[in-house]
Structures are given as C-alpha cells and as structure tokens.
Amino acid sequence: MSCSVMFTNLIFLALVYGLEGADVVLSCSLIEEGGGMGGMMGGAMFKRTPSTLVFKDLVGNDGLSPELVTPYNPPETPNADDLIFEMTLPSIQIPNADLLLHADCNEQEVVCEISRYVPRGAEMDSLPAHFIGSVQLEGGGISLTLVLQTLHNETAKSDTEPLMQSKLNLPLSQSGTLLTEVVFVVFSRVPSVMAPIGGDVLLDCGFRQKNSIPGQDVALEWRIQHRGNGRKILDMKASETENDVGQDLFVDREGTSAEADLLVRDGNASLTLRRLKVTDEGTYICTVGSGEFQTQQIVQLHITQPPHITLSEEKLVFQDTTPQKLSCHCHRYYPLDVQVEWFSQAPSEEEPISLSKESSLSSHRQHSDGTYSLSSYLTLRPDRNPPGTVITCRVSHAALETQSDATLTVEKPEPDTAFWTVVLMVSISVFFLYQAFRGAEN
Fold first, then answer.
1. Which of 57, 245, 346, 394 sits CB 3.0–4.6 Å from 261 for a disulfide?
2. What is the widest separation between alpha-carbon atoms in the chain?
3. 118-132, 271-285, 326-340, 384-398: which has the minimum mean pLDDT?
C-alpha cells in the first residue's frame, strides 16, 4: 500500500527505495533572471523552468518497507531539454532529512527552487558549475539552502560525446541527469518559532561543509527585518586555533549571543535572544560564510502574549426590569487579532445561544510595551435571562492553545431588607398603639 499522494507543482513527485537508502525526488523550479522590468512592457524579473531534484540515498533504509514508497524511474531516453539534478550525499549529513522522506505521508508540501551560484573568487561560467537549492517543508520541520557542485561523469564509458543539457550547456549522465554533490548547506530545523514576551528563545541555524580546512575562518551574521526595516544584530568571525577558538564579535542587542566554539567545531550557528520584547518580532536571516561559500537561512520569530480576561461584574442580579450592561475585558495581549464571543444558556435550554450579534467592541488600546487591550460590551435583559442563566464571554487568540472562557450566573434578587424593616417598624408601632389604646379603655 503506497502512502504517496498527488500534489501540484513544487511538491513531492515520488519516493524511491534505493539500493543503499531511500531516495527522494522533488519537483522544483529553475530560477533565472528574466531581463524584464517586473512585468512592465511584457517583461518579467525572473523566469521559472520546471526541473527535478533527486536526493540519492538521503537516509538509510533501516526500517523502511518497499511497499511504503513509490518507485521513480528516470526517462527511458535521455532528453537534452530535461532538467534533472541528481544529488549525491557522500560526505555531508543533513539533519532531520527523514522529514523530507515522510512529508507526503504527513500531507506536507515541499517548496523547491534552484538557481545558479557563483562561489567567491570564481567566474560565472567556470567549471565545476555551482547551483544553490532552496528546499522548504511547509508547515515547519526543516528548511535547507544547498550549494550543489557538478560532478564529472567518470562512469560513462563511451567514445561518443556526452549529451549536453540544452539550457545549461553542461554534460549529462548516461541516464540524462546532471550529476551534483552537496558541498555546503545552511539549514534550520525550526524555521518558525513562537515565544512569549519576557521569555528567551533559541533561533536554530546550522551549516555543514565538505572538505573544510582546519583553522578556516567562519563568518556568521544575524539580521532582523520587520515591516520594511532591517538591522544587523550580531556579526561574528571565528576560527579554531591549536588550543582555543578565537572570535571577533559585534552585538547590537543586549541579551543576544552565539557560541563561537559551537560554530567552528559543530557547525552550530544558532542565536539566543533573552528577555524578548514585541520589537524583537520579525524575520531573522542567518548568513554563514566559510571558505569560498556563503549562503543563508531564514527563521521567523513570532512574539505572543495571551490575554488576561475579566468580566466587569462578579455576579449579575436583576432587581427590577431594568437592563444591565456587562463588559468583558481582554488585557495586554499580542499579536493584535482577538475574537470575543458571547453566549447564554438558561436552565431550560440544552445548548448555549450566541449573543455575539448583540454585542459591541471598543477600539484597540496599545500599551507602551506593544501589547493591546480591548473590551466587548453586552446589554442583558431580565426577561430573556432568568435566574440560573449562565453568561459566557469566550475569547480566541493566537497565544491561547484553546479558547478561554469567563462566566457568571444570573442570581435571584435578594429580599429588599429596607422594605421589610419599614414593615416591621410599622407593625411594632401599630402593636404598641393597640396596646396603649386597650390600656386607656381599661
């Protein structure tokens, strides 16, 4: 039984059960500059050409069953117009690669784009050729930026010239694929993070490099972009010496840190942010450079703060037929969007009734720390809400795992003590007058 499903462009085509491990085949787009002006005069800034990226032996086949994958077969006749990037992974381990293998079974789409890449000090048309591949698992899990280097097809045993790819003018293998290997990768295993105000967060970023030179400098830069503004918050250059790890560090935000020894020894480029504020929210760009390669990864940080919910009254009592106004206050939440609903359920009703259409909202109030507050108002009438009726204010917000309720119950009015006090005093007065009158008669 196959768990593969059909998706549209930019998603999984198939899973392959290789001889040494499981292969993954992605539907991609080759991105090229279009030479236009962003749609003006019929031009386009970029051109997209359908292509395929084949991960050979991405993960070991331990525990995998052939029945759980769909075989992928290359074209029977190689075609010079086909763009099939066959990628071997002999020396670089990609963390969490198994997530790509099981993405289609988990109904997750994979976005894949490939474009030409020029290493430092190289010419545009120099050989071997280089490409940069961006692979993102939508919904979170893994995001990869891969530098691919073409391989010479040493296994081809033919007196004829190899078939040349028509667009790239590069030799193809006997099966019609462009053989490449990963020489550099920057990745994030958690490309989207939610964290509360005042808390700490680790933004995951790492890199792997083939044939890195001992003692080679590693450059790390973290930038934040939010609402059109951007700035560098950390810049580090580190290298491993015989006895220690040296670093040159610039930090533009208090409570920001990265570990130089982890960077050069383990490829760990993660960033720690302490005492988070609303202003820390944004898109973080992790750029790693080592040797002739440099590329980046993006991590989204979402700041959250759940609302504190209160009602204006602790209990509700109708002394007469006068309607009463009830308020539901949502205090200091972030982000902005919040939903407030009202419900009532009388003792005689099996299901609550929505009163949201009868309510009104205040405007949002923003505090100095960037959080918001809002109030919702509802007018209640005694004829529609008898004693025992439960009134509920239900709040939904991104920072709440589930909806949060604030409730109260309509209570019976207490006896009017002032009225009965007057009645008692009048009764006592009448009694004494009666006794006095009887005494006078006697």
1. 245
2. 149
3. 118-132
Helix/strand/coil (H/E/C) assignment for every residue in 99-148: HHHCCCCCCCCEEEEEEEECCCCCCCCCCCCEEEEEEEECCCCCEEEEEE
At 139, the amino acid letter reads G
In terms of residues, how long is the chain?
442
User: How far apart (Å, rounded) are the C-alpha atoms in residues 314 and 409?
Assistant: 9
Query: Distance between CA atoms of 56 and 360, rounded to whole angstroms?
Result: 59
Please count the CA atoms within 13 angstroms of the CA of 18 that sit on its side-chain side. Answer: 15
- The one-letter code for the residue type at 48 is R
Amino acid letter, 116: R
Instruction: Say if CB 15 and CB 66 are below 8 A apart.
Output: no
**Alpha-carbon distance 33 to 47, whole Å?**
6
Sheet containing 218-226: which strands, arranged edge to edge? 192-196, 293-304, 282-290, 218-226, 229-240, 245-251
Mean pLDDT, the chain, rounded, equals 84
- Residues 111, 125: Cα–Cα separation, whole Å: 27
List Cα–Cα distances, 86 to 23, 104, 127, 132, 397, in angstroms.
10, 20, 17, 13, 45
Q: Which residue in the block uniquely carries the two structure tokens 């309509």?
A: 410
Classify the C-alpha dihedral 227-230-233-234 as positive or negative. positive
Note the Cα 111 to chain centre separation in Å.
Answer: 15
Number of C-beta neighbours around residue 298 at 10 A: 17
Residue 146 has pLDDT above 90, yes or no: yes
The structure's pTM equals 0.81
- For the stretch 1-41, pLDDT in tens is 345 333 333 333 334 444 455 778 889 999 998 654 444 44
State the residue for tokens 């991104």. 398
